[in-house]
Write a structure and sequence with these properties.
With about 220 residues, this protein is an alpha/beta fold. About 40% of the residues lie in helices and about 15% in strands. The protein folds into 2 domains: about 140 residues, Rossmann fold, CATH 3.40.50; about 55 residues. α3 packs parallel to α8 and α5 packs across α6.
Length: about 220
């Protein structure tokens, strides 16, 4: 089973620039904003009990959707909302600034079925960077990308588990745990399993540019 769509030999980078592997949902696209509205329209709500979807999507009778129900709901959400999700504050401007000094590669765990919708959404917002859909943990894919080139590689994601997977797989990749959503940030118990922690795109810029200038 392929881990990415498309395969990892289908992109071009400038070899004189470092690489930034960037998540999409909650990093570029404001997933929770659109998802909460979607839940409300479907007579559901999110109870903010943990940093996970399963167990937190609740019916009006206070029962939680099970894992299979959540999977189907997320599938329908991506099918109907991927093309028109709003962007995280500052994401577009910051990514364009960062792209002057970094090769940006977008790596998202969106279901492969919606790869083209997500690519269209990125293009529509002027974010025409190499984009790959990924299955499962991102440590393996990020390490492969890093090892294909001699460039310093960075990884930015809102998921503590994905950041951890990258750190475990490849100690040479620098990581940023980026959580712009205040409610989600309060649910993360361990903010130390990363090289840097950030809550806004201006800080992401500073982290990346400071490190490049000092190396």
């Amino acid at each position: 089973m392929e881990k990415t769509l498309p395969s990892l030999n289908s992109y071009f980078i400038q070899e004189n620039k470092p690489i930034l592997i960037c998540d999409a949902d909650e990093v570029i696209f404001d997933f929770m904003h659109d998802f909460l509205l979607f839940l409300e329209k479907n007579q559901l709500f999110f109870n903010w009990d943990s940093y996970a979807l399963t167990g937190n999507i609740i019916r009006k009778n206070n029962t939680a959707l099970n894992e299979d129900e959540v999977r189907k709901l997320i599938f329908f959400f991506f099918k109907s909302h991927t093309l028109n999700m709003k962007l995280v504050n500052g994401a577009k401007n910051s990514l364009h600034k960062i792209s002057k000094k970094f090769n940006i590669i977008i790596l998202s765990n969106i279901p492969f079925e919606f790869y083209e919708l997500r690519k269209s959404a990125l293009d529509k917002n002027g974010l025409k960077f190499p984009f790959f859909a990924n299955r499962g943990e991102k440590g393996t894919t990020s390490s492969i990308i890093s090892n294909l080139h001699n460039n310093q590689t960075w990884f930015i994601d809102d998921s503590p588990s994905q950041v951890s997977s990258v750190r475990k797989k490849d100690i040479n990749i620098k990581t940023i745990l980026f959580i712009e959503n205040n409610k989600l940030a309060k649910l993360v118990k361990n903010k130390e399993d990363c090289d840097f922690y950030s809550t806004n795109w201006k800080k992401n810029e500073k982290i990346l540019f400071d490190k490049v200038e000092n190396e």
